[in-house]
Amino acid sequence: xxxxxxxxxxxxxxxxxxxxxxxxxxxxxxxxxxxxxxxxxxxxxxxxxxxxxxxxxxxxxxxxxxxxxxxxxxxxxxxxxxxxxxxxxxxxxxxxxxxxxxxxxxxxxxxxxxxxxxxxxxxxxxxxxxxxxxxxxxxxxxxxxxxxxxxxxxxxxxxxxxxxxxxxxxxxxx
Length: 174
Description:
By secondary structure, the chain is α/β, with parallel strands linked by helices. The protein is 53% helix and 11% strand.
């Protein structure tokens, strides 16, 4: 079975995506090497992409996030891309209590899926798991997870509260 490997990726976001952008090319190359190694050993890499508040406010969030995705999967075969999980995590929402609205999450996840389709075909894109992760709470999970291109949630701080996490997991039973 596949295992998820979100810890490294979450640390990048929680430690500040700003640090990563300082040497993006080198960082993406290291990430790519780690993703290839993870796939080779039967693990499922979680590729996290997302924008900061200033990028969103400037209206460049879609192009910015698609560029992150392309950089993260450059050099991966279609088979390799089919074996990863992509998580859209708007950096401005992590740990802030702010959450992208369901329409925002759908827009970004649909754009990510469309870019994978353009690069690796419709079958790979259709099978790709795309998660939303940005201050997911039991109150926001149902609307987010009802979106056609949001396949699941990457839950951060809310996972530390067992009751809250259970409500998220059982979102469709409410």
